[in-house]
Amino acid sequence: MKNTITICECFARDGLQHEKLFVPTGAKVSLIDRFTDIGFRRIEATSYSNPDKVPAFRDASDVLSGIRRGAGVHYKATCANLRSVTRALADLDAGYGATELSLLVSASESHSLRNLRADRATQWRNVAEMAKAAAGRFRLVGVISVAFGCPFEGRIDMTRVVEDAARFADIGAELLTVGDTTGFATPNLVRRLFTRLRAEVPQIVPVGHFHDTRGLGLANCMAAIESGCRLLDSAMGGVGGHPAQIQYGGGITGNVATEDLANMLEEEGLSTGLDLDALIEASRVSEQILGRELESRVARSGFGLAGLGRHV
Amino acid sequence: MKNTITICECFARDGLQHEKLFVPTGAKVSLIDRFTDIGFRRIEATSYSNPDKVPAFRDASDVLSGIRRGAGVHYKATCANLRSVTRALADLDAGYGATELSLLVSASESHSLRNLRADRATQWRNVAEMAKAAAGRFRLVGVISVAFGCPFEGRIDMTRVVEDAARFADIGAELLTVGDTTGFATPNLVRRLFTRLRAEVPQIVPVGHFHDTRGLGLANCMAAIESGCRLLDSAMGGVGGHPAQIQYGGGITGNVATEDLANMLEEEGLSTGLDLDALIEASRVSEQILGRELESRVARSGFGLAGLGRHV
Fold first, then answer.
1. How far apart are CA A287 and CA A236, in angstroms?
2. A158 touching B, CB under 8 A?
3. pTM to 2 decimals?
4. B309 touches chain A (CB under 8 A)
5. Do A297 and B267 touch (CB under 8 A)?
6. B158-170 vs B187-200: helix axis angle to the nearest 10?
7. CATH among 2.40.10.270, 3.90.740.10, 3.30.465.10, 3.20.20.70 for B6-307
8. Is A244's pLDDT higher than 70?
9. Could you identify which of A222, B111, B148, B268 might form a hypothetical disulfide with B185, taking C-beta atoms 3.0 to 4.6 angstroms apart as the criterion?
């Protein structure tokens, strides 16, 4: 049996978060349905952000009520505060909830203040309340942003990240997304952190979430896999960005491109469970939705030897 | 003492080979001088191609006579046939020769016929003659193209590549460039091949030459380093391409971007010996020369934690 890697497709949330264009609800729903059909087992569907602050997700409930559900597929929604968990619970009660919620903390104080408008101690209290409210209703995903480096503070003490992972486990998170929000991770840093997490917090399942800010996205995914990680995040076309990075100096900050990640995994003899032909079609549709050529290399060059013949 | 990686800067040859624009000789010379000042120990300067077929390098001798020479720095010229070695010898006799010549073979028959217009057996006879003519006058670099996969034939038998490496050693090549010409290498393939080369052909020094066709350029560089490789090729802005790939289906086929490679290495605690501030300036100049934004991510996003504060 081939070693299976579970990719969470993040286009519809992390990918769209900072797009200027509002993607119509119908387009989001049909794209997420396409992701389900391709074989993704985890799909980041939307965010219960404040619609006044993040209008991209003002249709969160409509998206979740509109999508088809694949058997055993998790649909994730991002929650930044208790109010968003309340909305998630209301949607669940109405019959169309997310199945996973992600709860966010930042590894640095500066990023926490800017991104979550709360210091770390306050945000940890928020997150504990959110987890309590959501307990038993959703699979919970703890997210640690800027886990490998902060654009404001530089290096992050790895022990702090490991301690945050343990806190997430303590409040009931089953998964832990280790977020390289602005692309400071390197393969050796990734190996060290994922090896420590496995040894010191074995009760939580780590997810590698890398941005390709400096071209290291796939190298970091590979390093995570070599350290036992089996869940990775990526977004079609490598879309996505982060305001902290934009404040700091601009640059390409997108997620790892799903097309390129799937190609690498299949080439390496790992199984993604994805329909690669349908993936290429979704890549085209994603570019049509945003009206521009996106960042995936495989979308331009075609798959490698394992998928030879599949050319966009 | 930090582990040192020697980057060969390939912008002026592999980078420019398929550019439509002819870069004026003066711009090439001043860019190569800039590369020397940045601290590169190996610079691919030009190609003794047939000027009628590859007009980009019709000024090969003028470039080599125009550049300043750094102490201990190697300036490489590409040779496809005996005629080009004759030209290289004439320039050397005139006092402005290259110090390294690269001699090319392809790992597949189809690519050899299309790219070198000779089958492998014929090209090996050519290369042996070329090496004989050049012996004692230049450092010789054997180059094996499409070493990890061929756009026409698919997978390449790794044993053939190892045998080619031994043949290059036999005819006097000190270095061996393992070329992933159209981006089919993956980290595990790279580890396997470089480990075999080290064990089976220890008399030749391997050089990793990766193209970022499918986003795996840096991951493959890292895999080569982990397998003991200490020399890598890259090009400013990730420029470069390959007609075979273009015939086969287009796509982004550029070299690994030097800016991104240097960032990764410095971040990983390896030494490049390069002046990173001057590297950023050269990145800007390279974009000005070609009149467009190139493919380096670091050129957009700035260096990571080791070089924090250096932002383009």
1. 9
2. no
3. 0.95
4. no
5. no
6. 40
7. 3.20.20.70
8. no
9. B148
